[in-house]
Amino acid sequence: MKKLLMILLAFAITPTVFAQKERKFVREGNGYYADGLKDTTKLDTITFGKAEVAYRRALQIKPDDFHWKFNLANSIYKQNKADQAASEFEKLAEETKEPAEKAMVYHNLGNSLLAQKKFDPSIDAYKKALRITPNDPETKYNLAYAMKMKKKDQEQKKKDQDKDKDKDKDKDKKDQNKDKDNKDQNKDKDKKDQNKDQQNKDQQQQQQPQQNKISKQSAEQMLQALENDEKQTQEKVKKAQALKGERTKVEKNW
Fold it and tell me: Is residue 75 part of a domain?
């Protein structure tokens, strides 16, 4: 009987011990989270990281507790892990059925999406929160801010597109001017080549008569030389005949 009593007491004590540990981890998480919020000039990711660890320990004891899950997602968001926090808030939005809780989740989900510049999904999350709590001033403000940022982003994208178009136009204009310059240079080169060819032809035509003239002079000189040779030959023949005649007369006299 005593042994059985001890066992019953053990069962009675165990939930109390777990509850104490749970509250201990939650207090630690809340303390770290509050410490992280003290210095507004910077984001203390280390302290919020400690808060995350504490909340996860509490959830190991009580895994279905909405508040610890909500605080866990917030501590993740405060570590600049907006994408991971958004995933946690999305799961919470599906799990919780209580309207006030769901509104808080959608509000923080909108914050996580806006931090990632996912403007349309963040706007949708804020609108879902306002359908539940239409008079919430913070959600109204965040919705207006998200819409403003979306418009600003669209205007910036349009400016960037216009700049890109202008750059493309300038590039096309430069390319056209370059092509025109190349064509003009080629035309000038062709013209110079044509002028050079014409000059060569003119020089050849000028040289041709001179060559012909030289050839004519050479021919006249050769003809004159032949005439001189012929005269010399005739004179030699005459002298030879005259000498022969003299010799013949001498012989007759003998």
Answer: yes
